[in-house]
Amino acid sequence: MNLPFNLPFLNRADDQSLPGGVTRPTWVVIDVAGDYPALNPGNPLAALLNRQDTLEALTARLERLQHAEWLHGVLFRFGSYSAGLSTSRAIRGAVERLSKHKRTIAYLPTLSMPALLAASGAGEVVAPESAEVNVLGLGIEVTYLGEFLKKYGVSFENLRIREYKSALTRFSDDHMDSYNREQLTRLIESMEAGWTEELASARGVSTEAARGWLERPLSSAQAAREAGLIDKVAYEDQLIGPATQSVSAVIDLLKPLAGRGRTAGRVAIVPVIGTIVSGKSQRNPLPLFGGVSAGSDTVVAALRRAGQDKTTKAVVLYVDSGGGSALASDLIWREVSMLGKPVVAVMGSVAASGGYYVLAAAKHVIASPFTITGSIGVVSGKPVLEEFNRRQGLNPEGVTRQEAGLTYSSARPFSTAQRELMERSIAEVYDRFTRRVADGRGLSQERVNELGRGRVWSGQDALAHGLIDELGDLHTGIQRACELSGLPYGSATWTATPKNRGPLPEFAQETADEAASLSVKAGLPGTGVLMWLDSDLQVK
């Protein structure tokens, strides 16, 4: 039976029968595929119908497998795996914790840097003889549209603080400037160093040997085995015995996690995922700022609900965002600073610009070595269609009371008065940003400015500069929240969402909100003053 959605307890199409006399499998197979978003949907029905496996669900599943007395081992079968390095490190941690209790094998038909990082938590790493090997180092490619847009009569105003703030340069420029090249080069170097250190530790080799895997690229699974990158060359059928079933077939055999829900308190998880905007969180199908957005109204309401919930003793703010509206970011920051309960911030793959601003007041901040963070800076701008309109015979005309009016009209560039107003405005926002960070991190504002100026940092470098407190993941963050609130490890967690709105059940209200979002107009997220990291910046 092929289901259009993910119902784990019915998804048993690939299970094989157990041998006669065997009532429980000794091995289970877990398919590791997709990009593994961090959290399950907030309401039960959405979680039930969710077609994507999540990091939260995978981690809980592996925790339950630890306590299955009848289980000998787990085979992780990596398929079309597309998660990034930060998520891969978190998966590695979950697999490593299971490996302390059960035998674990990771089977990788494709040897990529993220897959190898995730698989390195297993006791054995195996690849078929024909495995594709793609361990070539990391890279970033940005397409600059400035010259292309000019051909069609479109230019782009780009006001920024300061020299490293590159959020809009791909629209205004035709090439990468020296500051951006400098910061991206350092970002790649730091992430590659982090990868080699992680893999060297997991594989029991020196960092020099691990660095050699990148400097002298491997071409085959056999070469990878000889270099110590994997343990064995074999096909999947050589790893699976007769008493093996998929994990979906044994869900009903797994015991609930001991102690969950029976402790004196719980930890709330509040997600800030996607572009930060004013208003409600939604899904925007439009280009440039499309995808999931974190609305300040929604996030603030979730924080307030967690603050008012008497059973919640601490909050984990999970941020996976390149920022967005300066106003919306400040409103979320304010709620975090006033919560009255310990707040631990955990960064996902990116927590930069406004995504860093919102967590600046947290008591403890955690990131992956591969997180993109920092980007403490401000940007504003607009497309200018003056020449385009002339070519097309269009003539927008406006009436305004003062010269600074119609600042964001795309019909013409900023006037002198408009530019002066915008430069003053973003300077004030930057001053507020650096003060918020200085207060939250215990640094001088001068030091924050040195680390800021729009510059991005890896999580590893952010730790060295005092922008975060610890390297880790969501599991680490929940542990720290328990410690700060006096709760025992293993206490219950819940994803805080706003209280139900109106007569519709929560899941129906969310559906209505998403449908309404289809009419949202394209444009800068929330306001024209942004604390935003270009979403096109991806490490591959």
Describe this protein's structure.
α3 (85-99) runs parallel beside α4 and α7 (178-203) packs across α8 (207-215). The protein has 18 helices and 23 strands. The relative contact order is 0.15. The radius of gyration is 25 Å and the shape is globular. Helices cover 35% and strands 21% of the residues.
The N- to C-terminal Cα distance equals 36 Å
Q: Which word captures the global form?
A: globular
Rg of Cα set: 25 Å
Characterize the quaternary organization of these chains: single chain
What is the averaged pLDDT score?
A: 88
| Class by alpha and beta content | alpha/beta
Estimated helix fraction: 25-40%
Low-confidence stretches: 1-14, 501-527
Number of strands: 23
> Approximately what portion of the residues adopt beta-strand conformation?
15-25%
Note the main sheet.
8 strands, mixed
Itemize the secondary structure elements and their pairings.
Blueprint: E1 27-34, H1 44-49, H2 55-66, E2 73-81, H3 85-99, E3 103-107, E4 110-112, H4 113-119, E5 124-127, E6 132-134, H5 146-151, E7 155-161, H6 169-172, H7 178-203, H8 207-215, H9 221-226, E8 232-233, E9 244-246, E10 266-273, E11 275-277, E12 282-284, E13 291-295, H10 296-308, E14 312-321, E15 323-325, H11 326-337, E16 343-352, H12 354-357, E17 364-367, E18 372-374, E19 378-384, H13 386-392, H14 416-441, H15 445-451, E20 456-458, H16 459-464, E21 470-471, H17 474-485, E22 492-495, H18 506-516, E23 530-532
Parallel strand pairs: 1-2, 1-9, 2-3, 3-5, 4-6, 5-8, 10-14, 10-22, 11-13, 14-16, 16-17, 16-18, 17-21
Antiparallel strand pairs: 7-19, 12-13, 15-23, 18-20
